[in-house]
Amino acid sequence: MDDRFKNHSLRLALILAAFSALGPFTVDMYLSSLPQIMEYFQTNASSIQASLTASLLGLGLGQMIMGPLSDRYGRRTPLMIAMTFYIISSVCCAFVHHIELFIALRFIQGIAASAGLVISRAVARDRYSGVEMTKFISLLTTISNVAPLISPNAGSAVTSFSSWVVVFVFLGMLGMLLTAITIWGLDESLPATNRVQGNALALLKNYKRLFRDKTFMGFALVNGILFAGVFAFVAGTPFIYQNIFGVSPQLFSVLFAMNGLAIMIGSQIVKRAAGRFTDRFILRVGLTLSLISTLAILIAVLSKGSLSSIIVSLFLFALSIGIIGPVSVTLAMESHGQIAGSASAVLGTFQYALGAITSPLVGIAGEHSAIPFGIVMFATSILAIGSYLVFIRKEELISDGGNNSIIKNT
């Protein structure tokens, strides 16, 4: 089993990471172009921001559609159809002349990009389980986190020598590349005999099954709530670093990249710990680290602490995300292999839905106050731990029979 993981996982992880990267590139790559786009459409900032909201909404809702479709028709066919829509919507975004149509196309683009996010996790569950899946998800997380680091800079590089139109042409070309990868590089991972049968109503019933599974919901909430903290971090740190501490845009980019590096380090820690310790123990370590780091963030902003104290605390929080992400996904999807697409959809949708709540909250006191940011970050850790205790811990105590072993039996 270990030989198979070593021989095949890297190639598959690179392919799936490319599809996972479609979400960050869709959202982040055009951010530096927003002033140009606003001038082109002769509109206001709120209308342009609506295009960002539309893409995020598409990414969230699209997963709830793509997940069941991939359980019913396999992974490759929905992915190829979605990539076709992605190519068309991206190219159309580059050449439309009305802001309302641009916003609508961004919504379609988000739905199409969501297929890459949800199906990549489903393929991982099709191929692996148990310790192998934990290691693979850790590897996939490590590679996938390169995309959020380079996508904003890639967009800035494009607009520095060309117009915003080229950004969407580039995204269309990226969609073409992923279509080619789907056709020639990605084998079908869900055999016809294992697919969910029935009509749309039957597929929707799988969501009822998932929502009634307390253990699944516990892991899904832990994952979703803490990733909502990541959305809060992304929304809040540009103002905290630059407006409150006077950090230059160049240094901000470095500090932002450091947190991406922390997530990658956390994922590698999980990869090495998997098989030696139980996944649930690793999850508890991650939750403890998230609680300590977000408490430190809250104390730092309330006491008007130094920039270094916030940098270190955020680095540790990002490290905890790198630990919690892979194991929470593995544990959530472990017992739902037959409907891995739907399970993956719930995980992804929770992240975006809860992130949509936390992101605006960090700025409610204005761009020169970090207190809401500290409160929101700490609250995400408290709520995640609360979800773990309410939905998971009781079941753990019953199933363990009082045995709290942390070492993985081999």
What does the model show?
With 410 residues, this protein is an all-alpha fold. It folds into two domains: 1-195, Growth Hormone, Chain: A, CATH 1.20.1250; 198-410, MFS general substrate transporter like domains (Growth Hormone, Chain: A), CATH 1.20.1250. It is 82% helix and 0% strand. The chain has 16 helices and no strands. The chain has helices at 2-20, 22-28, 34-41, 45-73, 76-95, 99-127, 130-144, 146-161, 164-184, 200-211, 214-244, 249-273, 279-302, 307-333, 340-361, 371-400. α4 runs parallel beside α6. The mean pLDDT is 87.
SS strand fraction = under 5%
Output the CATH homologous superfamily of the largest domain.
MFS general substrate transporter like domains
CATH structural fold name of the largest domain: Growth Hormone, Chain: A
Rounded to an integer, what's the Rg over CA atoms?
A: 21 Å
Ranges where pLDDT stays below 50 over 5 or more residues in a row are none
CATH architecture of the largest domain: Up-down Bundle
Biggest sheet features: none
Give the overall average pLDDT: 87
Number of domains: 2
Helical percent range?
Answer: over 70%
Secondary structure tally: strands? 0
Oligomer: single chain
Protein structure class: mainly alpha
Please trace the helix and strand order, writing H or E for each element: HHHHHHHHHHHHHHHH
CATH top level of the largest domain is: Mainly Alpha
> Count of helices?
16
Shape: globular
The end-to-end distance, rounded to whole angstroms, is: 13 Å
Main location: membrane
Family: Belongs to the major facilitator superfamily. Bcr/CmlA family.
InterPro entries: Efflux_drug-R_Bcr/CmlA (IPR004812), MFS (IPR011701), MFS_dom (IPR020846), MFS_trans_sf (IPR036259), Sugar_transporter_CS (IPR005829)
Protein name: Bcr/CflA family efflux transporter
